[in-house]
């Protein structure tokens, strides 16, 4: 389990740090620009998406380039893997859970900054369960493909 935890931290920690900064900046900017808490929740969500996936895409491209020649085809493979890993989790997260938590937690906590962080943490928990499950399934299928190639 320690090995898996290290693997997950290596994959997600930098993206989480950038995403956290982005959600705080985005929500503060949204709060400054308008009075609608719903709009602020969606601005914060989009801000986190940009920061988080910017890091994930950068990491995947960097790792693929280290393996050798990098071209448009390999880029599309990287993007496909990201979609498989995060697709279901991100759909639920972006359109339902994260805006809900970022809208309700500041009200429940009666403090905008604390509520935003608590809302982000609640959304992260519900996001990572399906995302990590999808990544583990991808890794399992890739290992099976490699074993099959070796036996042929």
Summarize the structure.
The chain is mainly alpha-helical and 152 residues long.
- Name the poorly predicted regions: none
Please identify the structural class as seen in this structure.
Answer: mainly alpha
Largest sheet: none
* Tally of helical runs: 4
Strand percentage lies at under 5%
Helical residue percent? over 70%
3D shape: elongated
Description:
With 152 residues, the chain is an all-alpha fold. The protein has one domain (2-151). The chain contains four helices and no strands. The longest helix is centred in the last third of the chain and has 40 residues, at 112-151.
Q: Can you give keywords for this protein?
A:
4 helices, 152 residues, mainly alpha
Any chance you could write out the topology, listing elements then pairs?
Elements: H1 2-33, H2 37-66, H3 72-109, H4 112-151
Helix pairs in contact: 1-2, 1-4, 2-3, 3-4
């Amino acid at each position: 389990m320690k090995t898996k935890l290290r693997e997950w931290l290596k994959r997600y920690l930098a993206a989480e740090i950038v995403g956290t900064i982005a959600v705080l900046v985005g929500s503060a900017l949204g709060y400054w620009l308008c009075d609608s808490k719903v709009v602020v929740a969606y601005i914060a969500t989009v801000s986190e998406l940009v920061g988080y996936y910017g890091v994930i895409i950068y990491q995947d491209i960097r790792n693929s380039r280290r393996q050798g020649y990098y071209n448009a085809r390999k880029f599309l493979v990287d993007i496909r893997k990201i979609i498989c890993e995060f697709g279901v989790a991100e759909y639920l997260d972006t359109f339902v859970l994260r805006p809900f938590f970022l809208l309700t937690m500041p009200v429940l906590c009666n403090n905008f900054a604390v509520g935003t962080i608590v809302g982000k943490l609640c959304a992260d928990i519900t996001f990572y369960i399906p995302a990590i499950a999808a990544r583990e399934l991808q890794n399992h299928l890739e290992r099976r493909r490699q074993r099959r190639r070796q036996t042929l």
